[in-house]
TrEMBL record:
Family matches, as CDD domains: LPLAT_AGPAT-like
GO MF annotations, alphabetized: acyltransferase activity
Domain Phospholipid/glycerol acyltransferase residue range list: 53-172
Name of the featured protein: 1-acyl-sn-glycerol-3-phosphate acyltransferases
Annotated InterPro entries: Plipid/glycerol_acylTrfase (IPR002123)
SUPFAM superfamilies reported in the protein's UniProt record: Glycerol-3-phosphate (1)-acyltransferase
Membrane-spanning parts: 20-39
Record keywords: Acyltransferase, Membrane, Transferase, Transmembrane, Transmembrane helix
């Protein structure tokens, strides 16, 4: 979208429920994103306007939470993220995360279950919760989803019955490569984000191992196929 339109959109997105620090971060970063990138958003109508919903996205860069937040806000939803708990101890960033209602994850500890319960509670309260199932950047040389995924998104979806919307982004790996310390602003990068139809999990019930594994397969298949359509390429066979 044109820069002026992207900046103007900032004033029409939801503000209530963002918290002061999260709101301030959005207001500071959004104009920079609009000026230094070309944002192309499609499929926003796939996101329910209200009620609990799960978003599941591929992961390419540290820029992904920024661009996906912009996309979700443009679709009328405030995303809540699950992020490693250590980020809450970073000055200022901790305030942004707390104010935004995001959910800390104590990885590889007995407290990790608290994040699952927090996500369930948020969705049952009508929130939009964002997951990056790979829990890290793709390590595929062509940036296809490739990592061993975490099953939290499937467990939460099956527990709550909330719709799971696949969201894919493309271009953030050029804006802020995984090994870079600073964004590469020039030449101006194009960021594509698109949402797909809800993943059909209606025949799965309960949170037994088999149901969770099948749900994860369907979610990752939906993400990969949507990314293939966005890129107009065939994904690797594996």
């Amino acid at each position: 979208m044109p820069t002026w339109r992207a900046v103007a959109l900032m004033f029409r997105v939801p503000r209530r429920g963002r918290g002061f620090w999260f709101s301030l971060a959005i207001d500071l970063i959004w104009p920079l994103l609009a000026v230094f990138t070309r944002l192309r958003f499609r499929g926003a109508e796939k996101l329910p306007k209200s009620g609990g919903v799960v978003l599941a996205s591929n992961h390419l860069s540290f820029a992904d939470p920024v661009t996906v937040t912009a996309y979700s806000l443009a679709a009328g939803r405030i995303p809540r993220y699950l992020a490693k708990a250590s980020l809450w101890r970073v000055p200022i960033l901790g305030k942004v995360l707390t104010g935004g209602g995001h959910i800390p994850v104590e990885r590889n500890t007995a407290q990790a279950r608290h994040a699952y319960l927090g996500a369930v509670k948020a969705i049952e309260g009508g929130e939009c919760v964002m997951f990056f199932p790979e829990a890290g950047f793709s390590d595929d040389q062509d940036h296809w989803p490739s990592r061993r995924v975490k099953n939290g998104v499937a467990r939460v979806a099956l527990e709550t019955g909330a719709p799971v919307i696949p969201v894919v982004n493309w271009g953030t790996h050029r804006l802020l490569p995984a090994t870079a310390k600073f964004p590469k602003l020039f030449p101006r990068k194009t960021i594509d984000i698109v949402a797909g139809d809800p993943v059909d999990l209606s025949d799965l019930s309960g949170t037994d191992r088999e149901s969770i594994e099948e749900a994860m397969k369907r979610i990752m298949h939906a993400i990969t196929e949507l990314l293939a359509t966005l890129r107009n390429e065939a994904p690797p066979t594996r």
